[in-house]
Design a protein that fits this description.
The complex is a heterodimer of chains A (238) and B (108). Chain A is an all-alpha fold and 238 residues long. Helix content of chain A is 76%, strand content 1%. Chain A has 2 domains: 167 residues, no CATH class; 49 residues. In chain A, helix 3 packs antiparallel against helix 4 and helix 12 packs antiparallel against helix 13. In chain B, 82% of the residues lie in helices and 3% in strands. Chain B is mainly alpha-helical. Classes of the chains: A mainly alpha (238), B mainly alpha (108).
Chain lengths: 238, 108
């Protein structure tokens, strides 16, 4: 058992290449999301270079879509950072759950792998570990695949985006909303989550109407987080 | 503090976004190498990462046109039945487009 566990953190070129190939089917969808992001970002008034820079450096779809919502002539820096943090906070959990297998690696490899941490490759890596197979190749190779196709998709989106004159009449202004909603609905669903979401939505709407512009995202996120904290405690401690 | 969305300003915003995202990718591993992330913190982060999306969407649904509302409804329904994001998103967009083309007067 101990010997088997010890080999699970293996990471060599072949495993990375296998991981790359394993994530290729999902990368098709990532490309399509990338196209949608490129289109939405063009609509929001971002320049081509800006959009490519964002997809290359940030590489986190939901937070990039959300950033478009805050993209005005004057961008509130703090609100932007808190929003991006809140959406991407799930990466913290990914790092924490992978830690047992990352720990034996030297820091450069450990943090190098986490550079491309994303939902799909993390999910596949976790699945591999629970089946007793090495998962870090999936994490790194798969992450590289996702990154390549996210950037490629964004680039494609920029180059088809110019041909569309009235995006709203084609429903394209709803790409972001529908994408984020699909992520919410696709996540964990139970009475506890529904109540947390209700708290988040209520707080967000109150902030939207009564507090300064753009505060609703942060207010809703923190309200939902606190609801989850107070409500999670009960079934754990009793 | 607000930053102008031109030239250097956009680069600063994107670098800030990239650094925050990197901090989330590295933070979990970094913190775990000192202290394990506790149950309560995990609960908070888990609830917050879903809530932030809901917080973004709620005003969109309330202040959007009927096309937008129908689009969100369609996405939710397809996602609940098929559990596949791509048809759900495509369906939502399609419904918004059709509704706005066919009943422009009802959209607003």
């Amino acid at each position: 058992m101990a010997r088997k566990e010890a080999t699970l953190h293996r990471l060599d070129r072949a495993l990375v290449w296998d991981g790359f190939k394993a994530l290729l089917p999902i990368s098709l969808f990532v490309t399509i999301f990338g196209i949608a992001f490129g289109l939405a970002a063009t609509q929001a008034g971002l320049g081509d270079g800006t959009i490519m820079l964002m997809s290359t450096l940030v590489f986190a779809g939901a937070s990039q879509f959300a950033a478009l919502e805050l993209w005005e002539p004057q961008i509130p820096l703090f609100t932007m950072m808190v929003t991006v943090f809140a959406i991407n906070a799930r990466h913290l959990l990914m790092g924490a759950t992978l830690y047992p297998w990352l720990e034996p690696l030297p820091p450069a490899k450990r943090y190098g792998i986490m550079l491309v941490a994303s939902d799909a490759n993390w999910a596949m890596a976790t699945q591999a570990f629970t089946r007793g197979r090495p998962g870090l190749g999936l994490m790194l190779g798969g992450g590289i695949a996702l990154w390549c196709f996210w950037v490629l998709g964004t680039w494609l989106g920029l180059n088809v985006g110019g041909a569309i004159s009235d995006p709203a009449s084609l429903g394209l202004d709803m790409v972001m909303g529908c994408f984020l909603l699909a992520m919410v609905v696709g996540g964990e669903k139970n009475l506890r989550m529904l109540l947390i979401w209700a708290v988040a939505a209520g707080a967000s709407l109150l902030a939207f109407y009564y507090l300064p512009d753009n505060s609703h995202v942060v207010v809703g996120a923190i309200a939902g987080g606190l609801a989850g904290l107070t409500w999670g405690k009960r079934d754990h401690e009793h | 503090m607000s930053i102008e969305a031109t030239g250097l300003g956009t680069v600063i915003i994107i670098l800030a976004m990239a650094l925050v995202t990197l901090a989330t990718r590295w933070g979990g591993v970094f913190v775990m190498s000192f202290v394990p992330i506790g149950y309560r913190v995990r609960r908070f982060i888990h609830a917050m990462s879903g809530s932030v999306l809901v917080a973004l969407l709620a005003p969109l649904a309330v202040s959007g046109d009927n096309g937008a509302r129908l689009a969100l409804l369609t996405t939710a329904v397809i996602m609940l039945t098929l559990k596949k994001p791509l048809p759900a998103i495509a369906g939502g967009i399609l419904v918004a487009a059709l509704f706005r083309q066919l009943w422009p007067a009802l959209s607003a």
